[in-house]
Amino acid sequence: MISSKLSLRRPLAVVGAAFLGLAAAVAVASPASAHHSVVDGKAVCDTTTGEWVVDWTVTSVAPPESTGYRLYEVVAKPIPVTGIEVTLGDGYPLNPHTPLTGTQRLPGTTVQASLQVKGAWDSGHEDTKWKKKTITLGGVCEKEEPPPATATPTYTIATDCDGLVAVTLTNGKDATAPAKFKVVTAAGFEESVEVAPGGETTVEIPADKADEITVTEAGQEKPLFTGSAPEPEGCPTAGLEVTCEDMTFSLTNPEDGSESFTAVFTPSTGDVQKITVAPGESKSVTFAGSAGLTVDAVIEGYEDDVVTFAWDEEKPEDCPAPGGGGGGDLPVTGAAAGGIAAGAVLLLAVGGFLFYLARRRRLTFTA
């Protein structure tokens, strides 16, 4: 029997072919899988302008060792994409690991938008075919007109220095009908008014009727206002302190007072005293007490509004008799005297003087 030698030619040929096939596959697939660009986009209708807004993203897919990227061809339809353009200049200035973003703003009737690019990397690889995306826009994008402005009735409330409350009621200029207001208080005040579109009116509530105010309007489900009126601001204050020895008048003009005022005090005996009180100041005048003493107080410019104070009527009831002897009452001393002095502080408003100050202050406000 003759045995033939085993031939290695065929197995080596198979192995060689396999190696060649693998090498070819790597050579062809490596650039496509390791370095390529991806295009994506999303469209939204901007109803404030009636335009389609397409946000585009170009992502570079590259190995971590890649350090540079560029776009060497870009085609966008129907208009260019702001933010994604051909890279100008030499080199690869773009970061291959940071996506590029851009925007198209298109008329609301646009049907399609597209973007296609070709990128290249500093490793020598590049997109040999277009990487692209086409978006079909979903119908017509229309501008939405804002709803017509509603003319909501409004109010303001202010209190002047003698307690008068002014409620100012306003109807919007865009209103299509009159506003029907009602102002009521817990003290029994009530007034209804109708304000034309674009109009304004004021309801005045006397000081003694201004507790717990409610303002309503027929077209509103809830009251526009419920509560107390604000405290007046910028009002002068006055005080009177009467003891067994004298009478002291004090006047204060607040810092936000708009002007000075002058008060004149004329005693039944003795010299006339005049004080001018500027904004932010407090001043006082004192008259020695004596039987039958009276003091006339008035604000310059309002000479018809004189208020008279009598020391005999204002002094404490338990003052000692003049002279303090002859079997009369003993002088009041110690804690009792202090208590009388403190209890003798009276507001000039009781006599009407503060009222006139307040009235002058209000005139200043409206001048």
TrEMBL record:
Signal peptide location: 1-29
UniProt KW keywords: Membrane, Signal, Transmembrane, Transmembrane helix
Domain of life: Bacteria
Transmembrane segments: 336-358
Protein name, per record: Uncharacterized protein
Organism this protein belongs to: Polymorphospora rubra
